[in-house]
Amino acid sequence: MDNNYNESRRPKKRVTKKMAQRRRLIALAVMVLILILGIVLICVACSGDDEPSGKKSNTPAVTTTTSVTTMVTTTTTAPVPTADPNDPNTITKIDLSVYEVYLNVGESKMPLVTMTPSSSTEKGEIWESSNKAVATVDWLGNITAVGAGECYVTVTSENNPIIYAEVKVVVTDPNAPAGVTTSATSAQSGMIQQTGQTQTTTAAPAPSGSADVQTVDEVTYIDGILIANKSYGLPADYAPGLDPTTESQFNALSEAAAQEGLNIWLASGYRSYEYQSTIYNNYSSLYGAETADTFSARPGHSEHQTGLAIDVNSIDDSFANTPEAEWLAQHAHEFGFIIRYPQGKQHITGYKYEPWHIRYLGVETATAVYNSGLTLEEYLGIDSVYGN
Ligand SMILES: [Zn+2]
């Protein structure tokens, strides 16, 4: 009503005021529209820069300039970063002292690396093993034979990752029983073999409970399940390598995880008695035996010596609560594995929580153990305590 009154009082200014208002509104709308367009364009350009998580982006791949006034968008793509051949620090060649190494399980070898040009100040090496169940390699290039088989160890240059050299690693297991094929010994996947060959079977005194304990060539089977813990050890010459069924089931597990976008890899599989001695002694001298005993097995007591245990991904507390750790805890039994040392069960298993350590039992037993909510020790009615 006020408007009508004003309009009638000043009819001449009515039109211009309305038009000015309308113009202002249109101008505002256009400006808002341009602003939104600009923001959208910048966002699109930014998201294009993102690389898959875990990889660092050194140089932006796309540069976008948005001009608000002219609404012209120019997009330039920077070249893929490659090592500059004119840079005196660019590594152009890697030579090794050996390209093929033959090792027995537990043995180590470190090939010497020569990077060209020798004057380069950026000679950082990145070492990798194609199969950590066969051989592992540390950051210095020290290759350690883990289990029988063949794999490749590669070294690339941090400075120029296109350049690399490769060592073929052939690992043999001198303790593998002659005449017995690997698949034959492992087909049972840790279950007792009732083949009655040259094995000596003795009945050991049963632990608390009514578990069926059998000892075959100093290896203990409880209810038919091979056991290595603090109470039950393995002889030094028990060296089966990584059990092939365990390995193939692990690969199936890893593939299933990959289907869900998760990355679960084998970090440590079979370990020989000798290798475990080295590990344990290192920890023991670093932290003292009492502390070392809470997370590292004494030689002859490591489940890794059975060839039925695998450590996945990063073998430290950072693995806990990762999506991979959660998935593993929920699905490992579907592939025949259990999380061997669950949280809060140190007084039973003898080891602190290890979300990365899985033990192969076969799907049926692993599922039964999983559904019971018990540790393997509780499930079998045994303990895990060193005798001395
Ligand atoms: Zn382990």
Gyration radius, rounded: 32 Å
Describe the global form. Answer: flat
- Distance from first to last alpha carbon: 101 Å
* Total of helices: 10
Number of domains: 3
How many DSSP E strands? 19
Q: Give the second-level CATH assignment, the architecture of the largest domain.
A: 2-Layer Sandwich
Strand order of the largest sheet: 4-11-10-7
* Structural class category: alpha+beta
Q: Bin the helical content.
A: 25-40%
Provide the residue-averaged pLDDT. Answer: 78
Largest sheet: 4 strands, mixed
Give the CATH topology of the largest domain. Muramoyl-pentapeptide Carboxypeptidase, domain 2
Describe the overall structure.
This protein has 388 residues and is an alpha+beta fold. The protein has 3 domains: 2-77; 93-172, Immunoglobulin-like; 201-380, Muramoyl-pentapeptide Carboxypeptidase, domain 2 (2-Layer Sandwich). It is 29% helix and 22% strand. It has 10 helices and 19 strands. The protein has helices at residues 2-9, 11-47, 182-186, 244-259, 273-287, 289-292, 323-331, 346-349, 363-372, 376-380, and strands spanning 62-66, 73-77, 93-96, 100-104, 108-109, 113-116, 125-129, 135-137, 143-145, 149-157, 164-172, 201-203, 213-216, 219-222, 225-227, 266-268, 309-312, 337-341, 354-360. The protein has a 4-stranded mixed sheet with strand order 4-11-10-7, with no helix packed on it. It has a 4-stranded antiparallel sheet with strand order 12-13-14-15, with no helix packed on it. The radius of gyration is 32 Å and the shape is flat. The chain starts with a helix and ends in an 8-residue tail after the last helix. Residues 304, 309, 311, 357 line the site of zinc ion (ZN).
